[in-house]
Amino acid sequence: MSQAFNSVQPNRLLSLDVFRGLTVMAMILVNNPGDWGHIYAPLEHAHWHGCTPTDLVFPFFLFIMGVSIVYAMQTKKADPANHASLIVKALRRTLIIFGLGIFMSIFLNWDFATVRIPGVLQRIAVVYLICSLLFIKTGVKVQAALLGLVLIGYYVIMNYVPVPGVNQPNLEPETNIGAWLDRALLTTNHLWNQSKTWDPEGVLSTLPAIGTGLLGLLTGTLIKRPDTNNTTKINALLGAGFILAALGLLWNLWFPINKSLWTSSYVLFSGGLAILVFAACYWLIDIRGYRSFTKPFLVYGLNAIFVFVISGLMARGLNRWMVNNHGSKTSVSSFLYQSFFAPYFSPINASLAWALAFVLMWLIILWVMYNRKIFIKI
Fold it and tell me: How is the chain split into domains, by residue range?
């Protein structure tokens, strides 16, 4: 990570920072319950097919990243002489994000023989690189065509390509073509430790995740158009959002909405909802100028990767570090949870209270960083 910058860039799209902050807050909330056995249904992932609010968090972040690429690169992209330097910067950022993902996987374990290679940050890194290269080297028409090709191609692969050793194409967790490819390329030692036979951020499902990033590129390009007024932009966003979400629900009848498989219907449904949320933020904050409520989300949004990484490392540390509790060893997180949360709430509310306290603690830290103009960039 680079050193802190002295100020926030004055030409930033405030609504995008707010949307990013809201998304990262949701990430931390759903990733840190006090008790994994007691979680409100909207704060859990769908068991397999289906979609909960929690299942929207990751695609929202990839969508936001696509919009951000446009804002970060469009001016320099106009001059082909800048393309090489833009590509180098994209490669550098990709390696850093991917490396941080591997570091989070191995932290306090330090066993490279069993480190999980796929992961949230690793997928973000790959999608960022591919979308950056496409934005630098192609235009809107090519990007839109590639989006359609990716979604249709993934549908064909998942539903019609025979699975070695199984033969019949299927969408079950352990026997779909994506799970087979993960085991073939990464072996079970380097996959999600809760399954070992498949990975929710696997190799093949990263292909449609690129489609989510492409939706962000196309949205960002629309917002940046100088020849289009705000009313037209909002109407276009609302129309696109509703149509994509509806198409996702329709495609769900043949290709179920599924986050772990990142199905094409899931890309359209979650992408449509992301566009609608972004349109609401853009209209409310950047067009109408309602900004008094935005600071809690800004402090998260302007240090998004930093807080995601550090909070994840902290959570793992609290679960690994042991303390003496009445003669027996227990983790720091368990000790704190059982001492300050479990006795005062019902099990499910105690679990939620712990997660909210985690979000609030980081809000305070990030608020101080914001006030001191400390923004950790990659």
Answer: 1-44+290-378, 49-289
